[in-house]
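Slide 14.
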Amino acid sequence: MPNDTENWVERPLTMHEGRPLYPAALCPACRQVRPTHLFRRYLTPSEARAHGYSGHRRVEVETAKCKDCNFKRGKPLDRLTNVELRKQAQLGDINVFVAETIIKRREQAARREMAAGARKAHEGRIMRLWEALLSHLDAEVQGVYQQQKYARRSKREAEVNAAVIDFCTTYLAVLRKLRSAFYVNKRRAQQKPEHAASDWHAYITPDERTVAMNAWHAIPYAVREQMRPPVIATTHTTTPETNSGYE
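Slide 15: predicted structure.
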């Protein structure tokens, strides 16, 4: 008889005159002749105490079905609740250290999940604030772009159209630079905007405001009266350096 009993299950039993060459039994479930060591299992400590044993040592008993067909007791440890884990640890079915390790790992995962959810919600609120600023800024960009488009097709004097186009180009450069800064702050979602969405122009630096206003005043007054004035011309904001949208 071979000494390696693990290979007995992998290959079919060798029969001689209708009888196996080593101890075997017939499983009533799968109807196969299996080695007798497959018809044994160990009792849990609680089951051992129920059978009159102390429960401090492992007790092996014989079963009617083979190991593969025998009823699988309980659920995997990762599917047990914390209450079930502590109960089985008290009964001695599982090691106390293993149960506490699983419970501690679950609590740490729950805390990480809660922190990630709170961080995501906070970033979402910040992103929505920056999106509101971008919405107001985009409306101004679209208006200036339409003025520039109209000036290039207008039949007015060339000098007038050149002044309008020069203002639109200068002002659009300021707005697009500011929009890029807003997009960066939106993606980072680390700091809330210091101004309301309607006060997006407060992020324009004084130097940029001066350059844009000089280009605006270079347009003849009669033409400016017919144009939609830029937001910086209708608002007066003393913008400190800390209010700039650039980093």
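Speaker note: Residues 127-243 form one domain.
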